[in-house]
């Protein structure tokens, strides 16, 4: 056993676990998911909430975050939190007004806010016979084979990243930007958002934005609520943070295999039905978004297995921002996507990255040069590994839709 551990340790040391390119070159999934330490994350940990824990308040030492929350708090709609963080609404739904005054998606899939001033959720895409192509719950530590496959297909996608996963797997998050994928927010701890009080809901979004900025250098302008659980109070908080709400119309149920009677056959039938609906003309007026996941090796492999069928059935598979003709996907203006017309005219090239893909990760690696002496860095590295290991265990419990 000790011999095996030493062997594994030697193989890990032989890999470059300090750069995006080094991490992306690992093909052994056990090695991919072996914890590493990334100095910019280590240095910033005390300004973030605990990884994988629901955010209940802004950390006391984050004066910028607190000021930002207080600036919006008074104007947040007075809609009470619903149910529990794990999605038990049994004590709430029976007394909820059936007219759905909060436009609560979980209740009746409402996507048109009742509160004035809020934009409609994005649940489909305007371009006909087009799939808005995206994946939830990443970055997954063992995603190299999946991202390699997408790269071979010269296929870009929208990645909805969980803040805690970004902190655990920063080089994997960098790869998504480097590969030209679009990054959106999928909250800090992946709980039901309508259950959070205002400060917690703010923190779930704000610290995921901060994590993505810290690690990749970009600030997303889109988010997807875990389980689709959103109402006008949460939409308002997201909009104040510059985030557009993205949902879906079709569900692959890939996350749900083994639960609620869902099997791999169910998931395959969902993929088949989506492709058949293209042929049947259902998307001749407007395109579609299907919920699929970077959650585990099964969900990623299932997409690989079905990709040829989808690519044949649809006229176009594009990141959601491209389908929306949203050419500036991030707050940072030095980063642009092609228009839809331009993208499909030459889909073999990456969405154009003015300033190159290196601009995204450079801010993260730049911070590395400020690292402390080797003695203290070693000590920090060990404790971060423990934090990440605990986070992995907690995260495995928390993950879902
Ligand atoms: Zn999710």
TrEMBL record:
CDD domains: CE4_MrCDA_like (cd10952). It catalyses: [(1->4)-N-acetyl-beta-D-glucosaminyl](n) + n H2O = chitosan + n acetate. The keyword Hydrolase applies. It is a lipid-anchor; GPI-anchor. One of its GO terms (biological process) is cell wall organization. Residues 129-338 form the NodB homology domain. Residues 364-376 have a biased composition (Low complexity). It is an enzyme of class 3 (hydrolase). InterPro entries: Glyco_hydro/deAcase_b/a-brl, NODB_dom, Polysacc_deacetylase_ArnD. Its cofactor is Co(2+). Pfam families: Polysacc_deac_1. Residues 352-376 are annotated as: Disordered. One of its GO terms (molecular function) is chitin deacetylase activity. Keywords: Carbohydrate metabolism, Cell membrane, Cell wall, Cell wall biogenesis/degradation, Chitin degradation, Cobalt, Glycoprotein, GPI-anchor, Hydrolase, Lipoprotein, Membrane, Metal-binding, Polysaccharide degradation, Secreted, Signal. It is found in: Cell membrane; Secreted, Cell wall. Its main location: membrane. One of its GO terms (cellular component) is plasma membrane. Belongs to the polysaccharide deacetylase family. This is chitin deacetylase. It comes from Mycena rosella (Pink bonnet). The lineage of its organism: Eukaryota, Fungi, Dikarya, Basidiomycota, Agaricomycotina.
């Amino acid at each position: 056993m000790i011999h095996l551990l030493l062997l594994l340790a030697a193989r890990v040391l032989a890999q470059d676990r300090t750069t995006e390119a080094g991490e992306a070159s690992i093909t052994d999934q056990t090695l991919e998911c072996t914890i590493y330490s990334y100095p910019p994350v280590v240095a910033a940990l005390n300004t973030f909430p605990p990884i994988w824990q629901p955010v209940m308040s802004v950390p006391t030492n984050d004066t910028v975050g607190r000021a930002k929350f207080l600036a919006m708090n008074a104007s947040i709609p007075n809609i009470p939190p619903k149910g529990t963080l794990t999605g038990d609404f049994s004590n709430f739904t029976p007394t909820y007004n059936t007219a759905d005054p909060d436009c609560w998606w979980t209740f009746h899939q409402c996507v048109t806010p009742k509160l004035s001033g809020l934009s409609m959720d994005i649940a489909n895409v305007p371009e006909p016979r087009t799939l808005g192509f995206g994946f939830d719950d990443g970055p997954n530590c063992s995603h190299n084979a999946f991202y390699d496959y997408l790269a071979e297909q010269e296929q870009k996608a929208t990645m909805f990243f969980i803040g805690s996963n970004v902190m655990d797997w920063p080089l994997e998050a960098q790869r998504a930007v480097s590969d030209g994928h679009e990054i959106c927010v999928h909250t800090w701890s992946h709980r039901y958002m309508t259950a959070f009080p205002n400060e917690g809901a703010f923190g779930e979004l704000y610290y995921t934005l901060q994590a993505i900025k810290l690690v990749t250098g970009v600030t997303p302008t889109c988010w997807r609520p875990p389980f689709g659980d959103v109402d006008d109070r949460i939409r308002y908080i997201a909009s104040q943070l510059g985030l557009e709400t993205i949902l879906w119309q079709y569900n692959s149920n890939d996350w749900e295999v083994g639960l609620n009677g869902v099997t791999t056959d169910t998931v395959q039938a969902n993929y088949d039905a989506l492709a058949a609906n293209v042929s049947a003309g259902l998307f001749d007026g407007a395109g579609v978004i299907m919920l699929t996941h970077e959650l585990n090796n099964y969900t990623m492999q299932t997409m690989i297995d079905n990709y040829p069928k989808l690519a044949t059935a649809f006229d176009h598979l594009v990141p959601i921002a491209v389908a929306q003709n949203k050419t500036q996907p991030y707050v940072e203006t030095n980063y642009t996507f092609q228009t839809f017309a331009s993208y499909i005219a030459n889909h073999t090239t990456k969405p154009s990255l003015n300033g190159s893909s290196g601009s995204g990760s450079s801010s993260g690696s730049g911070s590395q040069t400020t690292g402390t002496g080797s003695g203290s860095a070693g000590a920090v590295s060990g404790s971060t590994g423990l934090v990440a290991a605990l986070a992995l265990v907690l995260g495995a419990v928390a993950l879902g839709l």
